[in-house]
Each structure stands twice: as structure tokens, then as C-alpha cells.
Amino acid sequence: MTDASTGPVTPATAPSASGVLLVLAHPALERSRANRALAKAAKGVSGVTFKDLYETYPDFVIDIEAEQAALVSHEVVALQFPLFWYSTPALVKEWLDLVWLHGFAYGEGGEALKGKRLFVACTTGGSAKAYHMQGYNRFTMDEFLRPLEQTAHLCGMDWETPFVVHGASVKDDAALKAEAERYAARVASLLPARTEA
Ligand SMILES: Cc1cc2nc3c(=O)[nH]c(=O)nc-3n(C[C@H](O)[C@H](O)[C@H](O)COP(=O)(O)O)c2cc1C
Description:
By secondary structure, this protein is of the alpha/beta class. The protein has one domain: Flavodoxin domain (Rossmann fold), CATH 3.40.50.360. Strands 1, 2, 3, 4, 5 and 6 form a six-stranded parallel beta sheet that branches. Helix 1 crosses helix 7. The N terminus is likely disordered. Flavin mononucleotide (FMN) binds next to helix 1.
């Protein structure tokens, strides 16, 4: 049951929530090199549920209940995107605005995300050197990602150290392959170790 002004009736945080919900947001994946390589590698990690946000909602009409159910049933929420104007692509903002509602994600009765973890993976055109107080972009990536970090905090989620690939547009195939392997290992490390039978 959803009320546009106050949000849905909150489902209790599912004790059985497990795995990583990997939400990819790239508006032109067919032209992507970096995010495509990263997503391909992470998709193969056992325990990962993959969602391509722009493919699912090309018209920006988001199925709020389905998105909330996906969030509730996973332990880790991973958000992967190319940095656009020092922020997320627009559909991530729309998804947050419409899905992470008062009464669901935060506020009175809004405990559906409490205890989960938020992990951000981001590619940038700018070099690592540019993301520095004395660099071209004047601020660090941690600073540009603060709104997401605070979103996690507001929702009672733990903030994982972000995975950032700088200079993504100028990396050759071998370098991107290495980043993709590093990314898949990081995503796998977010999952609890399985005890052998
Ligand atoms: C609309 C737009 C805005 C962008 N803004 C930034 C930015 O603020 N900082 C930056 O370092 N790169 C910026 N870029 C470059 C992208 O982040 C870069 O092309 C992307 O991370 C490469 O990944 P891909 O191969 O998956 O597309 C921007 C690109 C576009 C198209």
C-alpha cells in the first residue's frame, strides 16, 4: 500500500535479507566502456542481484513497490554509476526521491533499510589528481559523495568505502579489465563468507 505523500506502510526489515542488490545507472550503456566492464564482472559474483535502472525505467516511471521490495530483501545495496556533473545520473536521483520514502527509508516507521549497507561504485572522467583540494576539481571524491553517505546515515545504513575508477575514459582495455577484476573481488567481499558444508 503506497501513499505518495507519506510513503508506504513499512515492511519490517526482513530478517532473511541477503545478498547484494547491484543497481547500475548509466543512460547510454551501449556507449559505455568502464561501467559495462565493471557491471559484467560484478554480475557474475554469486549472491548478486543485478538491476539496470535505465534499461528497466527508460521513461523514468519507477515501480516503487517493486523497488522497495528489492531493497528490503537484500542486505547490501550497491549503486554503480558514472559521475555526471559531480553527482549521480538523473535516474538515481529520481529513484531515491520516489523509492526511499518517509515511512519506508527514514522518519517515523521508516526502518526498512536500517542495518543494511550502502556501497557506491563510481567512474570518473577526471584523473585521481584532479579530485584533490589543489586539483582541477577542488574537492575529493569523498566530498562529492557526501550526500549519498548522509542518505545512508539518515536511513540507519552503514556506509561502505566507495569503489572509484578515475580517468575511466582514457583507460585501455587491459586497465579496465584489471579494474573490473578488482571490482568483482570487492563486491564479493561485501558478502558474508559462506561456511563450508
Ligand atoms: C553529462 C556528463 C557529465 C559528466 N560529468 C563528469 C564530472 O562531473 N566529473 C568527471 O570526472 N567526469 C564527468 N563525466 C565523464 C564520465 O564520468 C565518464 O565519461 C564515465 O565515468 C566513463 O564511464 P563509461 O565508460 O562507463 O561511460 C561526465 C560525462 C557526461 C556525459
